[in-house]
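User: I'm putting together notes for a lab meeting next week and I want to include a structural view of one of the chains we've been expressing. I don't have a solved structure, so I'd like a prediction I can at least talk through. The sequence is below, exactly as it appears in our construct file.
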Amino acid sequence: VAVLVAVGALLGMGRNFLPAFNEGAAQVNLFAQPGTSLETSRTISQMADKRFRQLLATPEHPNRPLLNFTCRTGRAEDDEHVMGVNVSEYVMSLNPNSPLSRAELIEELTHAVEDLPGVEHEVEQPIAHLISHMLSGVTAQIAVKLYGEDLTTLRVTADEIKAAIETIDGIAEPVVEQQQQVPQMRIELQREQLAFYGISARYVHDFVETAMNGRVVSQVLEGDRSFDMMLRLDEPYREAIDQLGRLALELPDGQRIPLGSVARVYESAGPNAISREDAQRRIVVRVNTAGRDLASAVEMIQQRIDAEVDLPEGYFVTLGGQFEAQQEATRRIVWLGLLAIAVVFLVLHAAYPSISVVLQILLALPVALVGGVAALLLTGQDLSVAGMVGFISLGGIAARNGLLLVSTYLDRAREFGLTREAIVQGSLDRVAPVLMTSLTTGLGLLPLVIGGDLPGKEILLPVATVIVGGLITSTACEFLLRPGLFWALRADAERLLASPEEPDVRTPTAA
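Assistant: Thanks for the context. Below is the predicted structure for the 511-residue chain, given as C-alpha cells.
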C-alpha cells in the first residue's frame, strides 16, 4: 500500500528541470519601446534607481533586501548578446540578513518597476537567466513560440496569447518579444540611373556607408598609442534626411552628381528585428514561473492557448524552454534506470539462479522509493533532475544492503539449515554492517538537507533529501520486512540450496 501511494504521489508531484537557485543576486531587465533613445532610457533608469534605493540596506535599516545594484543600458555590437539602448539590465547583490524569502524578494522587485510608464520588465536571477537562454535561446523558463509569415499578424496573435495566459496563477507577467515598427531611413537605388551614369550599386553603397556609418581611413600616432581616424559626415548632416538627396556623389570620371539622381532617399518604418527558427519567422512570448512548478504551468498555458486563442491559418505554436530539457532528461534517466535494473537483475540471477530470491533482494528498491518520495513531500520540494539522480543512487545503496542480508541467510542455511533461528541470527549478525553503511551515508548527507537552501547547495539538496529519506525506509525494511518475507518464501530458497553449486562431472548424470 505504501509503495502504491508513493508511486501515485510521485506521478502527481510538481516537476522542474532544476531546483530553484539561491544565487544571492537578482537580475531585473527593463524593456522600453524599440527605437527609444539613450537619453530616454537614462530617464527611465533614473526612475528605477530611485525606487531601488528604497530597498537598499543602510545602517538605519540593515534588514532591507538589497546591498547594492548596477545598471547596464544596451550592449555593444561586438557583444555576444547584442541589445539596443532601449534595454536596461540591473544586477543586484542581495542582503543575506533580509527576512524576505526568494519568492517574496522577486515580488518586491516586481512591484518596484511594474508601473514604470511604457516599460516591460523581467525579474530573475543571473545564473537562471543564462541557463534559460542557453537551453532555448530565450531568457525565460518557458518560451511560447508562435510561427507564421506576416509580422503584423504575429504581433497581434502574440498579444492575444499574452492576454490569454497572464491570469494564470503561479506565473510572472508574460513578456512579448519586441518586434515592432520603428522609424528607418531608406535609400533605394534606381537601376536605370545607375546604368545611365555607368556606376555600380556597390559603388553607391560604399559611398553611403562611408557617409553615414564611417570608414577608417588612417591612424594617428601619439607616443606609444595609436588611434583610428574615421571619415564620415558630421552628426547634423547625417540626421538631415531631407538633405541627404543633395549629397554630392563623385563619379569615376570626376563628375559630381547629387545622390538623389541615382537613389530615392526617404523616411519609412520597418521591423526592429525579424527572428527566424527553422527557416520560419517567429515571435516569442516569454514566461517565468512564480511559486509554481514548471510542468503544471506549461500544461495550463497549453490549455489556455487551445481554448482562447484562434490561430490564423498557417500559424502554429510550440512550447520550449527549460521544460523541454526537463522532459528529455526525465526520459533519458528513466530508460537508463530501467536498463540498470535489468542489468542488476541479470547479474544477481547469475549468482543466485532463482527469480524469487533475486526479487527479494530488489524489494529494497520500491521500499526505498517510499522514503524518498516522503522526504520530498515533507520538505516541500518538487521532482527535478537532481532528485531523479538521487533515486538512482539510493537504489544502489538499498540493493547492496538487501544483497548483504540475503547472502547471509543463504550461507547460514547451508551451514545450519533453513530455520527461523538461522534467519534471525543472520539478521542480528548484519545489523552493524547495514547500519554502519546507512548511517555513514545518511549522516554525511544530513548537513546538505539542513542547509540546502544556502547559496551553492541547491542542486545537492534534492539528491541528499531523497537518499536520506530512502535510507530510513529501506533500512527499516531490511530488519522488519525481509526476514519474514524470506521465511514465507523459504521454499524457493530451499530449491536454490538443493541445487549443487558446482556440477560433478564424474557422475553419469552430470555427464
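A couple of points you could mention at the meeting. The first helix runs from residue 2 to 12. The CA atoms of residues 356 and 492 lie 6 Å apart.

User: Perfect, that's what I needed.
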